[in-house]
Amino acid sequence: MHKQSVTAEDVARRAGVSRAVVSRALSNNGSISPATRERVLQVAEELGYQVNFLAQGLNRRRSHLIGVIVSRINDPFRSSLLDGLLGEIQRNGFQALVTEIRSEQELAETLRHFTQFRVSGVIVTSGKPPEALVNECVQQHIPVVGINRQPDIPGVDYVCSDNAAGAVLAAEQLVNSGCKHFGWLNNHSSTWAGRMRGEAFRQALIERGVVEQNLASLLCEEEGYEGGWQAAAAVTQIPDGIFCANAQLACGFLDGMRQRGKYAPQDFQLIGFDNTPQTAQYSYRLTTLNQDVAEISRLALAHLLERARTPAQPSRTSWVKVNLIHRHTSISLT
């Protein structure tokens, strides 16, 4: 008998049990004696039977898949977040269906495809999903969780790093180390999380007596490292203390300033956000805010599973603590 032709009915017939017993044995779900489960598993192995989880999902209206939507997967923080999510998904007995998107249109198409696959849940790490499609997921009892997304769609849960608290830590570090003129570095097409960090940084500086005239916005056209490099080339008056929306911008800015003969922390102080592996390398040693990827991933899966059990519960947002990692690009206060 060829492996591809083996069915659950074949296993049931050989093991001398019903099709339902085979299902319970293979899914490890339901009442069945250990001896019966062992016999079914042994027969399944002998016949080369493989569980078709997608077909099971079509029969039960759910698959063992969790859809994950990402963009710019080559970004170090996004790739580390994806790695954390994949590990958490697998530990919870699911498999990930990962799709990289490049536009809001692709996001909508992906979300539609995920509903057709009858996924058990969707995690959105990039872009803003159309509310109509999210409502369709909610109506089908497909849980949706957004990571570092703006919490503005009913029926969706969110897990976000505490961006505002991180910005306050950056402001305190720069003010207490003697900076008088400040810069906020971000790109024009910033994410919601990036914009939130910038506004919280501005507010924290004002609360500490810094006047608006001493805070400059260093906005660049490009994202990531290239944007930071361009910002370094374009800035005329270099602020004493600069806070960056993400680590890649910060690394690009550092290298761009080095080309101009300017170095941190002698000529300016710099704080990034993300704490990617690159920021710890000797050539950067960037002071940065650390996002707890493991906790973000854990909470994302926890929210999915809880909403699957109680679909009608109110939306909720979990804020994950960030902490300042002090390295070479800012002055030590101790």
Largest sheet: 6 strands, parallel
Amount of helix: 40-55%
Oligomer: single chain
The CATH topology of the largest domain corresponds to Rossmann fold
Total separate domains: 3
What is the fold's blueprint, element by element?
Blueprint: H1 8-15, H2 19-27, H3 34-47, H4 53-60, E1 65-71, H5 76-91, E2 95-101, H6 104-116, E3 121-124, H7 131-139, E4 144-147, E5 157-161, H8 163-176, E6 182-187, H9 192-207, E7 215-220, H10 224-234, E8 241-244, H11 247-259, E9 269-274, H12 277-280, E10 287-290, H13 293-309, E11 317-320, E12 323-325
Parallel strand pairs: 1-2, 1-3, 3-4, 4-5, 5-11, 6-7, 6-8, 8-9, 9-10
Antiparallel strand pairs: 10-12
What is this structure, in a nutshell?
The chain is an alpha/beta fold and 334 residues long. The protein has helices at residues 8-15, 19-27, 34-47, 53-60, 76-91, 104-116, 131-139, 163-176, 192-207, 224-234, 247-259, 277-280, 293-309, and strands spanning 65-71, 95-101, 121-124, 144-147, 157-161, 182-187, 215-220, 241-244, 269-274, 287-290, 317-320, 323-325.
